[in-house]
Specification:
Chain lengths: 431, 904
């Protein structure tokens, strides 16, 4: 393989990650040396914008564009913050973990460059509670970066200061939502915040803040070092760069690979994950974690990039697929997922707090063959009422997507869960 | 103004507000839960969804939450859109999934916002078939009942409790569909404003525990517009009565005074009205020397004799009696024989304040105007305990400066959650000078500790820093001078500064200093002087102050030195104002003591010859003047079956019996007119509220709601005949559910109700705009406005700095919201929370005496030795000590004073 792997090139599974010296030897922190104090911060932002680096947390927003909303200049509110969202809790997703455990200095370098671009003087890594190895390795790497003069005061002699702190989360799915994370970091309940105002303007402690996924930040050093054209060429589609794609479920070789953005689903599934285990047939997959809608065999040639998956009726999300086979109960899988989402609802807005448990309870009954006529319509109605804009944040719409698509593609499975002859429940939504 | 379209109709609305706010002001039926006009928008419940269209060509539209969407020019929305209605119905269904549907046994039933909104959405059948979640309830103390199972998780309670009231012990716990609102453990809610939860909660989670003890359906309560009697602020209330008992107090919104809230003393102090020691019939001392009930005729006959020569009668008025009753007494005995039933010192302080507000250039601001002030200097008052609602206003005021960042961040002020995220814990300037720690300390920029004289010196120094012409403070320590310069700088640059002071330290110097600061700021600021807010001792202290007269010591001197035979004591418990010996001396000299009061105390009962049952706020109409100088009418709530009536009526009747009437007063208006004519400062008294002859469409305004039930059966155990509703000659209100239904002047609003809106949220229908004045203007008339002439000379009696005396302690008065006020202390729930006697000392002083916290100390107070448990604090200046004042059974009169303290 001669492909460039800017995210994972330094990662040697089963060996400790590069320390600062080794990372430097591999060309690490070159971007910091060439950029901090030497480039205009706005030029860094423009570079990232031109590279079309889209947020790897799942929403796919143009990263440079997001940075450009941060107020710049001498008179703006201080401190400004850069927060790395390392609270990777999306079911089926384990990509940030690899990056933090495998190449912590790449991540730190990405944070320094990003902080420089928005002129943030304080950074936080908001880490998932369960990532204890990552915690150890990140702590070590942060110490080394301070010792190497890459963090702290007057980096590169440029007058730019950047302090980086790690916060280990108490552990809730909700903390991974950008604004819920900020509340958690402030020591408050991890309820989401309304947008606008966006964190870029009024974020952590009311100050301008950028929250960025770990993988996104890890893309930044390569772009700064090698430029826009190089970055775009890594990709097979309009979105720049490479992407960590993962596959879980009953495939032959579940795993995680750095591949060009836009690699077709079929290629990932068959060439990398080795196809379905013997005796099992493919029924569908959730392309980017639990909160994305199903793709089925008609979508296997869809390119894995934000726009292509969007056109196919789902979202690329985190790019880590969960595969469904023909021997696993769809209703059971949905129950498992909805119980998770109901459990992880922060309890703030009504359709999510009270709607999701209802959905989970119906699915619980259905998976045991205790469904009642009207249940499918009720599920659909509750999902409709958890649509984007109707709930406070994206948690509930993310929960509704897979369920609605499961009912769409596998309706017969749901119908089988309602035994004939059961008394009719009142049809959902009846006046 | 912005033009918006709502369901095809155009409206001109305030474009700086959100769509829910403006729709409610337009009278639309749009359901909501998490939004509250005082706490603002947070977007949690998703109940107020409406369809919004991009422009006139957009037929699709999208659902938005009205409370989270600005009413921008050209907005096009539909409330009635089918998809919006279906969504709102579904939200109500979700909210009701775990609700116990226990309306028939719920205290909230009948005025429940959840009931109203559920009906409004059309949700009526629960399809949910699984078990409901349940919760354990907590004992939250004597005021608020807790029933978590009814909760719909709107989060209003915690937003109110933490963000508005500054409370810390009510939190949201747990998550997903098991969010719990309560304390970390059982126990009384610590906030002095916990009772507002009862009204803030849209359903029956937090309900009035005192109402529960003597429960009546809300629609069976007879109510009247009233004014709180438990401090000088004059918060507006709605007491509710059934079967001769006051059952509860509810907030009556006033755009300038109390807004949406009351303190717990005001809400729960009412039970003195129902007290077993109430005087219900006239009493006469009989030949055996005992007080006994007597027929009215016999009492009047005796009074006719006693009052035959008014020159031999002194009248002692009261700051807790109405203007009308005080005036009636003054009118009977003559101004020169009219005294105030308070110490001379207190009368003098109030007189000084009246003069400052009348003659000076600084105006007295209202309670809610404090909220708009952006710099606060509190001089001497522990506001939470002397004028509780001031705390709420100050907490709002200190957000004004931090909120200036909002414009740049494009955050509208209604967006409460975003405002909170943006300003975090930033607070604007609040300077506090008090003798000991107060609850607001934690919100203060700087706290300064010292005696009243020290606090006054700081004030004088601030005035000096603002205007070089103001008197200097001799021997002012550099530290104080620096602080003064800092306060002066803040006042100079503030948009609207306010000085809050009062009488609680019993110090003229403090009041002078407050006036000097406000006046001096007038020369330092182009925008004019700072505003003044004085907290006075009682609900009508200001009114009595405007009426004039000296205090008890002077009256005692007059009696002892004079030719007086009879004294009339109006609604004053002298035992709280003067020593037992002084009462003995006083009573020994007057031959006849006539007492008008609601509760009989043993000290007075021992000497009274005639006792007349005086109506409280619940059984009488009248006018109080609050500390702002606003005269406000309170209306009789019910007609007692006994002979209780207004003191002014008793006095007028007695005057008649003695042949001493000055004109005939048939009703309250006649008294007001006479007072307005006799006393120049009271000319506006006739304009306080509509006259008794006021009618709407020829009808009176009913006190009882139209759903009031059981009138034909209420006394059926005694008579099968339905009694005629009592007449009310004094007011345009009727004791009935019959009469005019519809908008009334604000002074006459007995109850907030609108079709489909049975809860207090119906208030939206009574305001000109949300949180604005009541339709037709807020009630009451300000009697004190600055003269507008030249600034009076600065007060120049700068006191000396406090100096310790070896072996002695300077005893200072400390106040308690629960316990320091006379009438509320008779209310059982208040008693349960009332302070017990103690002495507060500086820890270092106590250590020198070998005293630890809780040890008993010997303290001489008013010449009496008390053994008091010691409370330690680092806040008191060394050489000073504090004792609570006003507690029942613990008279503390001549404080501040030097005393000795030693180990008990």
């Amino acid at each position: 393989m001669n492909r460039e792997l800017p995210l994972t090139q330094n990662i040697r599974i089963d060996q400790p990650p590069f320390d600062c010296r080794e990372y430097e030897r591999a060309g690490g922190y070159e971007a910091v040396k060439n950029c901090v104090g030497k480039m205009e911060p706005q030029a860094v932002t423009q570079l990232i914008k031109d590279a079309n680096l889209r947020g790897r947390g799942g929403a796919g927003f143009n990263t440079g564009l997001k940075w450009s909303f941060v107020p710049m200049g001498p008179d703006v509110a201080r401190p400004k913050y850069l927060v790395a969202n390392a609270d990777e809790m999306e079911p089926g997703t384990f990509k940030d973990r690899l990056l933090m455990e495998g190449d912590p200095h790449l991540f730190i370098e990405g944070m320094i460059l990003s902080a420089y671009a928005i002129q943030a003087e304080v950074g936080f890594i908001f880490l998932r509670w369960g990532y204890q190895l990552a915690e150890l390795r990140m702590h070590k790497a942060i110490r080394e970066a301070y010792d190497g003069g890459y963090l702290g005061k007057n980096i590169n002699g440029s007058g730019f200061n950047f302090d980086l702190h790690m916060h280990v989360s108490a552990g809730r799915y909700m903390c991974g939502e950008e604004t819920g994370l900020l509340n958690a970091l402030e020591g408050r309940r991890a309820n989401p915040r309304a947008k606008p105002p966006f964190p870029q303007v009024s974020g952590l402690f009311g100050k301008p803040t950028i929250v960025q996924n770990v993988e996104t930040l890890c893309n930044v050093p390569g772009i700064v070092r090698n430029g826009v054209e190089w970055y775009k060429k890594l990709s097979l589609s309009a979105d720049g760069g490479t992407k960590l794609f993962g596959v879980s479920g009953k495939v032959k070789r579940p795993g995680l690979w750095e591949l060009p953005m836009g690699t077709p689903v079929r290629e990932i599934l068959e060439s990398y994950a080795g196809g379905m285990r013997d005796g099992l047939k493919f029924r569908g997959l959730l392309p980017g974690g639990a909160s994305t809608a199903f793709l089925t065999d008609q979508h296997l040639d869809v390119k894995m990039d934000f726009d292509s998956v969007g056109k196919a009726g789902s979202r690329m999300g985190t790019g880590t697929m969960i595969v469904l086979d023909d021997k696993t109960s769809v209703v059971g899988m949905m129950h498992n997922m909805m119980a998770f989402f109901a459990q992880e609802s922060c309890g703030w807005c009504t359709p999510c707090r009270d709607g999701l448990p209802w959905v989970a309870k119906i699915l619980d009954a259905m998976k045991d063959g205790q469904g009642q006529p009207g249940d499918i319509e009720r599920l659909q109605l509750q999902c409709k009422n958890m649509g984007p804009g109707l709930t406070f944040c994206a948690l509930a719409p993310g929960a509704a997507d897979p369920l609605l698509s499961a009912i769409k593609y596998f309706r017969e499975d749901f119908e089988r869960a309602i035994p004939a002859g059961k008394p009719a429940a009142v049809a959902a939504g009846a006046a | 103004m912005a033009k918006i379209w709502v369901d095809g109709k155009t409206h001109d609305v305030d474009g700086s507000r959100n769509l829910l706010d403006v729709c409610l002001s337009l009278g639309k039926n749009l359901p909501y839960f998490c939004w509250h006009p005082a706490t603002g928008s947070v977007g949690a419940c998703r109940q107020c969804a409406v369809k919004q269209y991009r422009d006139e060509n957009d037929k699709q539209g999208r659902l938005v939450m009205a409370c989270m969407t600005q009413a921008l020019e050209g907005s096009r929305i539909s409330i009635e859109d089918g998809e919006a209605r279906a969504f709102r119905k579904s939200v109500a269904e979700c909210l009701m999934v775990n609700h116990p549907h226990d309306c028939p046994v719920c205290d909230e039933g009948g005025e429940c916002h959840l009931q109203d909104m559920t009906v409004m959405t059309g949700h009526n059948y629960r399809a949910y078939r699984f078990p409901k979640k349940t919760y354990e309830n907590q004992d939250l103390g004597p005021f608020v009942n807790h029933e978590m199972n009814r909760c719909i998780q709107c989060y209003r309670c915690v937003h109110y409790y933490k963000d508005i009231a500054g409370g810390k012990d009510l939190q949201a716990f747990a998550c997903h569909d098991h969010v719990y609102f309560g304390r970390h453990e059982d126990g009384a809610l610590e906030s002095e404003f916990s009772g507002n939860l009862v009204e803030v909660c849209p359903t029956g989670v937090f309900t009035d525990k005192t109402l529960k003890k003597h429960y009546t359906r809300k629609w069976d309560l007879q109510t009247a517009p009233s004014v709180c009697v438990h401090c000088s602020l004059g918060c507006n209330t709605i007491p509710g009565e059934r079967y001769g008992l006051i059952r509860r107090i509810r907030n009556r919104y006033h755009g300038k005074v109390n807004g949406y809230f009351l303190c717990d003393r005001g809400r729960y102090g009412y039970e003195f009205v129902n007290h077993e020691r109430r005087i219900r019939r006239p009493l006469l001392r009989n030949a055996d020397g005992a007080l006994e009930e007597a027929p009215r005729e016999a009492v009047m006959e005796r009074l006719g004799v006693l009052l035959a020569d008014p020159k031999k009668v002194v009248g002692i008025g009261s700051p807790r009696a109405s203007m009308e009753s005080n005036f009636a007494l003054r009118s009977l005995v003559g101004a020169e024989r009219f005294f105030q039933g308070i110490p001379d010192r207190e009368a003098h302080l109030v007189e000084t304040i009246v003069k400052i507000l009348k003659d000076g250039p600084a105006r007295s601001c209202s309670l809610r105007e404090i909220e708009q002030c952006d710099a606060v200097f509190i001089l001497g008052e522990d506001v939470t305990n002397t004028g509780p609602m001031v705390e709420i206003s100050v907490r709002a005021a200190i957000k004004q400066q931090p909120m200036r960042v909002l414009d740049a961040l494009k955050i509208p002020t209604w967006h409460a959650a975003a405002v909170k995220d943006a300003i975090q814990d930033e607070r604007g300037p609040l300077f506090m000078a008090t003798p000991s720690g107060t609850k607001l300390d934690s919100a203060a920029t700087v706290t300064y500790r010292g005696t009243a004289d020290d606090c006054a010196r700081l004030g004088f120094a601030v005035a000096k820093a603002l205007d070089a012409k103001a008197p200097d403070v001799p021997e002012c320590p550099a530290e104080t001078r620096e602080l003064a310069a800092r306060i002066a700088e803040v006042f100079r640059n503030a948009r609207r500064p306010v000085v809050i002071s009062g009488t609680s330290l019993r110090s003229e110097a403090v009041i002078h200093a407050a006036a000097n600061v406000a006046w001096a700021s007038g020369t330092a600021r182009s925008a004019g002087p700072a505003e003044l807010f004085f907290i006075l001792p009682e609900c009508n202290s200001m009114g009595l102050g405007i009426m004039g007269g000296v205090g008890i010591e002077s009256s005692a001197q007059a009696v002892i030195g004079g030719m007086f035979e009879t004294a009339i004591l109006l609604e004053s418990d002298l035992a709280r104002q003067t020593s037992a010996e002084a009462i003995e001396r006083f009573a020994g000299r007057v031959k006849h003591l006539v007492v008008l009061d609601s509760i009989l105390t043993p000290e007075i009962a021992a000497h009274a010859e005639v006792v007349l049952p005086a109506g409280t706020f619940a059984e009488a109409d009248g006018t109080f003047v609050n500390s702002e100088g606003r005269a406000q009418r309170f209306y009789q709530v019910f007609v007692p079956e006994t002979e209780i009536q207004e003191s002014w009526r008793w006095i007028h009747e007695a005057a008649g019996a003695a042949g001493q009437r000055n004109g005939w007063w048939s009703n309250l208006d006649d008294v007001c007119t006479a007072a307005a004519t006799a006393i120049p400062g009271l000319a506006a008294l006739v304009k306080v509220a509509p006259p008794a002859s006021f009618r709407l469409v020829g009808e009176k305004v009913p006190r009882a709601p139209h759903r009031y039930s059981g009138r034909t059966a209420m006394v059926a155990n005694r008579t099968m005949h339905e009694p005629k509703p009592p007449a009310d000659p004094d007011t345009p209100l009727s004791f009935s559910m019959e009469g005019y239904e519809g908008p009334t002047p604000a002074a006459l609003i007995s109850n907030f109700w609108a079709p489909g809106w049975n809860s207090i949220q119906s208030l939206n229908r009574f305001q000109e705009e949300i949180s604005g004045p009541l339709r037709g203007g807020d009630s009451g008339v300000r009697l004190l406005e600055p003269s507008g002439g030249t600034r009076p000379a600065y007060f120049d009696r700068v006191p000396e700095e406090f100096r310790r005396k070896p072996g002695e302690w300077f005893l200072l008065p400390l106040y308690h919201i629960f316990g320091s006020e006379e009438m509320s202390s008779l209310s059982p729930p208040i008693q349960e929370r009332a302070a017990k006697p103690y002495v507060q000392m500086n820890s270092a002083d106590a250590a020198e005496l070998g005293l630890k916290a809780g040890d008993l100390a010997n303290v001489h107070i008013d010449g009496v030795l008390h053994r008091l448990p010691v409370q330690l604090t680092a806040q008191l200046l060394r050489g000073t000590a504090g004792v609570p004042v006003g507690l029942a059974q613990f008279p503390v009169l001549n404080v501040p004073a030097w005393t000795r303290i030693n180990k008990g």
